[in-house]
Amino acid sequence: MAISSGGDSDEVLSEINITPMVDVMLVLLVVFIITAPLMTNAINVNLPDTETTVQIEEHKKPLVLSIDAEGKIYLDKDEYALEILQQELEGRKLTDPELRLNLNADDAVNYGVVAKVMVLIEKAGIEKLSMVTERGS
């Protein structure tokens, strides 16, 4: 496609105006920068402080199980009742036999709820469980 300059000469202007394309790319960059932090785990829990330990390098992203201060249980960002948690974990274990699970329990949650959840995790056959805590000062 040729663009004429509108003058008397028969020259053809063959340059592409890239300014609109750059504008669109900058808008997309700003959108991605703003939305990227929102893609993380959105369940807000106050983790207990512990000593620093050796961290294991993980190749695949683990499933995150969170328990908030009210005792509500979340798998990633979806809320589940304690009664159906074992069935959900068993289903996910069937799809991924090497399933890793990170347990985030709020510091204020009743220990009984955490113990019940850990029993359900064991009954579901999940062997790779990590307890997530804050780094102590």
UniProtKB/TrEMBL annotation:
<dbReference type="InterPro" id="IPR003400">
    <property type="entry name" value="ExbD"/>
</dbReference>
<keyword id="KW-0653">Protein transport</keyword>
<keyword id="KW-1133">Transmembrane helix</keyword>
<dbReference type="Pfam" id="PF02472">
    <property type="entry name" value="ExbD"/>
</dbReference>
<keyword id="KW-0997">Cell inner membrane</keyword>
<comment type="subunit">
    <text>The accessory proteins ExbB and ExbD seem to form a complex with TonB.</text>
</comment>
<keyword id="KW-0472">Membrane</keyword>
<protein>
    <submittedName>
        <fullName>Biopolymer transporter ExbD</fullName>
    </submittedName>
</protein>
<feature type="transmembrane region" description="Helical">
    <location>
        <begin position="20"/>
        <end position="39"/>
    </location>
</feature>
<comment type="function">
    <text>Involved in the TonB-dependent energy-dependent transport of various receptor-bound substrates.</text>
</comment>
<keyword id="KW-0813">Transport</keyword>
<keyword id="KW-0812">Transmembrane</keyword>
<keyword id="KW-1003">Cell membrane</keyword>
<comment type="similarity">
    <text>Belongs to the ExbD/TolR family.</text>
</comment>
